[in-house]
Amino acid sequence: MSALLTLDSISKIYRFGQIKALKNITLVINKGEMTALQGPSGSGKSTLLNICGLLDGFDEGHYHFDSTDISRLTKQALTLHRREYLGFVFQSFNLIPVMTVFENVEYPLLLAGVEKRRERILALLEQVGIAEFLNHLPDQLSGGQQQRVAIARALIKKPPLIIADEPTANLDTQTAHHIIDLMHTLGRDSGTTFLIATHDDRMAARCSRTLQLIDGVLQ
């Protein structure tokens, strides 16, 4: 396996109070891995996800995404890199309420200027089991259905890395099982790399490995 993410002694310091949210994080995530990140609330999981997802900077250390040195990218280049290489799944779904299922999944392709989108979108909606609802608005769907749309939106550009923050937190047990199965299958079949922050031991059990983050330190 080759590395997709390499973090070397990454620290994140909040200036007020000089609090280190992350302390010398060294981590390698290989291509195709499905990695769970666990730890109590306030342990730094979201901070680490935001750094890995190029949503937040870091104060110490080095971060390479594949062969790219992230610290050398301009703000504009970071935005383009994030748009090209990453997908995100959030516990609150973050779907655009005035857009249909089809339009929500199509949106990343529109931003990227991709043509011939329809067949690609329909095939993915079929794969995640939501094709019959393509013309529905998000508030017409159940929580599990909305999460499937969110997963499809994250996958539609076929990014190397998908970052998921508590993707089963707001779901009932049966729906959570379906979402876990879906993400595991999609990761296995597509070779996509997943980094998943979760309190759900069922999700962690399906991942390649589980990392524990306590008080900003990887155990």
From TrEMBL:
The keyword Metal-binding does not apply. The keyword Lipid metabolism does not apply. It comes from the Bacteria. Residues 5-219 form the ABC transporter domain. GO terms for biological process: lipoprotein localization to outer membrane; protein localization to outer membrane. Keywords: ATP-binding, Nucleotide-binding, Transport. PROSITE patterns: ABC_TRANSPORTER_1, ABC_TRANSPORTER_2. GO terms for molecular function: ATP binding; ATP hydrolysis activity; transmembrane transporter activity. GO terms for cellular component: plasma membrane; transmembrane transporter complex. InterPro entries: AAA+_ATPase, ABC_transporter-like_ATP-bd, ABC_transporter-like_CS, ABC_transpr_LolD-like, MacB-like_ATP-bd, P-loop_NTPase. Gene3D superfamilies: P-loop containing nucleotide triphosphate hydrolases. Pfam families: ABC_tran. PANTHER family: IMPORT ATP-BINDING PROTEIN, LIPOPROTEIN-RELEASING SYSTEM ATP-BINDING PROTEIN LOLD. Belongs to the ABC transporter superfamily. Macrolide exporter (TC 3.A.1.122) family. This is ABC transporter. It comes from Candidatus Thiomargarita nelsonii.
